[in-house]
Write a structure and sequence with these properties.
single chain; MetI-like fold; two-stranded antiparallel sheet; 349 residues; disordered N terminus; mainly alpha
């Protein structure tokens, strides 16, 4: 039985009660560690430790059948001195930025179209249907599009083009260097477009309606309204989509490998395919780890620069644009008098 102390709290007597009391006191004194500790342990186990092990592995020369040998930065020197490295770098940049441009552009166009749907239930239906493609695993998406681009009469594109009489024989889409890269870019962009559409649609729905009313009063065209109001409000959303989609495309593997395996030749070989070949086929784990460290480093540099410089400066410009638009609304209210008093009062910032 516990005894009441002078403070009114029960003093623990048994060993079990003392243990519970100490744990409770520790949790109260270190509440931040209690809540964040499990998450930090999980992040350490699945991210931090593998990254440090990858960095360690990149400093060793690994040859099948021989012990590891510490070579310091020799793997990185070899990587930068290899001609094919720059070919793969060019392919990776073309693939990632091409996918980003198409996915972002198509996502914005679709988001604008859905945002103009008057009925909310119909708008939600369109959004849900388009999200289905995002739920499909990338490997499955790659196999579907591989069938679409099949270079014989059984491929969907060739089948349609031959049925309408535009071509007489099947086109080997994935056997051509230029067409193969275009095919994998379109496939990757199609898979990432729903995410862009969803984020941009959320940004479009956050634009206050009275901004468009003020633009109509000023006699602005649709393009001027989009450039001066819509685009300014959704710029942070565009920045988020651009960063995430580019980072995923920059290290993509699940689309290119099932479709072309990096071919024909090395025309669609990007860094992820290069790492797979060196590590899983040639068993050159040290060199493959060095390339992987290079990819991680580039991704971290781009993400850091993007967040600190671009999005930081964008936030200041966005606030300035809001103030400028607010002044425009106020001028309209003064010019048109009572007809725009409600519009003036509806300005919430």
């Amino acid at each position: 039985m516990s005894v009441e102390s002078d403070t009114g709290f029960a003093t623990p007597e048994t060993t079990y009660q003392k243990l519970r009391y100490r744990i409770s006191q520790f949790a109260n004194d270190h509440i931040l560690l209690v809540f964040m500790g499990p998450a930090l342990l999980a992040i350490t186990a699945i991210f931090i430790y593998p990254v440090f092990y990858l960095l360690r592995q990149s400093l060793f020369l690994t040859i099948p059948g021989a012990p590891e040998r510490f070579v310091w930065v020799e793997n990185f020197i070899t990587m930068f001195q290899t001609d094919v490295f720059y070919t793969y770098l060019k392919n990776t940049l073309l693939y990632s930025f091409g996918s980003l441009a198409i996915s972002l552009g198509s996502g914005l166009i679709i988001a604008l179209g859905i945002n103009h749907v008057a009925r909310s239930k119909l708008r939600d239906f369109y959004s849900t249907v388009l999200m289905f493609s995002w739920a499909i695993p990338l490997a499955v998406v790659a196999l579907i599009w591989k069938w679409i681009f099949t270079g014989n009469e059984l491929g969907l594109i060739n089948m349609v083009l031959m049925d309408v009489g535009l071509i007489n024989s099947a086109i080997p889409w994935l056997a051509s260097s230029q067409m193969a890269m275009l095919a994998v870019i379109l496939t990757d962009a199609w898979a990432r477009m729903p995410f862009a559409m969803l984020v941009l649609l959320a940004g479009l729905q956050s634009v206050p309606s009275h901004m468009y009313d003020a633009a109509k009063v000023d006699g602005a065209t649709s393009f001027q309204t989009f450039r001066a109001i819509t685009l300014q409000y959704i710029r942070p959303y565009i920045a988020i989509v651009a960063l995430i989609n580019w980072m995923f495309a920059f290290r993509a593997f699940a689309v290119v490998f099932p479709m072309t395996r990096g071919g024909p030749g090395t025309s669609t070989t990007i860094f992820s395919i290069h790492i797979y070949r060196e590590g899983m086929i040639n068993f050159n784990y040290g060199y493959a780890s060095a390339v992987a460290v290079f990819i991680i480093g580039i991704s971290l540099l781009v993400a850091t620069f993007y967040v600190t410089k671009i999005m930081g400066g964008m936030e200041g410009q966005w606030v300035l644009q809001i103030k400028t638009t607010n002044e425009s609304v106020t001028r309209n209210a003064r010019r048109f008098g009572t007809s725009l008093r409600v519009l003036k009062l509806s300005t919430w910032y």
